[in-house]
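Table S7 (text form). Paired inputs.
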Amino acid sequence: MPVPDEAAKSRALPHSILFLCGMNAIRSPIAEQLARGMLPSSVFVASAGVRPGRRDPFVDAVLEEAGLSLGDRQPLLLEDMEDAYFDLIVTLAPEAHHAALELTRSMAVEVEYWPMPDPTDVSGTREQIMAAYRDLRERIAARIAARFGADRPARRQAE
């Protein structure tokens, strides 16, 4: 029986993916929406945070540029999820990674750490702040494409 090579193994699609970050306000909701647009609908995708957060209007703006939307979705805590079992948990911040490792200590769940910058660290004009959020969106899209062999969605240009 042939053993799959590392490239094929890394591109295998899990049945369910959880993107986890600090407050489920920026990195993980962007990742969730991008993954929903890039992966087959047969893959269940969700996101959550490890502490309470508030919706960030810059996230809405950068998702709209990509033709995506959070709709009326609000940040969700990991502990408030009805079902916390996923095939893959992708952590996007150090505190989320530690929480995921603790949560999955006795579970057969793959946890991957994708360190991503926090765009709230950037100050300046609205355009400088938007550039940081766009950079984050593009980094996450590139990582999803590389990890899952997914096509990157076409983006609308900012107007």
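Next pair, protein 2 of 2.
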Amino acid sequence: MIQRIQSIYLAVIALCCGLVFVFPFAEIVIPDGVCVLDALSITTKTQIEVELLKPWLVTILAILCALLSVAIVMQFKNRLLQIKLCRFNMLLLLGLIISIFYMIDRTQELLSMGADAEISYGLGSFLPLVAVILNILAIRAITKDERLVRSADRLR
């Protein structure tokens, strides 16, 4: 049912994955300027703004996580399938987190070239962590509903 608590958790997961596109993951301060990492591009802001590359893996994983969360809400009649899809969404979210922090680390390595580079993490890098916690809560709520339905079936 759409009014259940797991639906709210899954909707907030989709929102977190959507907000990944709004907030930057990190800013790396290098001697020449600042490099901004977000879900759509990695750009350096020196005298001229240059786009270094597009992080396609992060973009695709964030879109998949958001769409899968919405699809899980629509599967409210099949709770066992919801649990399986939530577990798959957990894997996607963990892949998203790993790819974000790998992208930040690799970009810092490439840009610093032996010099000190200061990293300031943005809100976008922590939103998938919030989504993982909400995904765990959604799995627990769906499992609780399934146990409740099974116990009610036994009483009939």
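Residues 5-147 form a domain with the Butyryl-CoA Dehydrogenase, subunit A; domain 3 fold (CATH 1.20.140).
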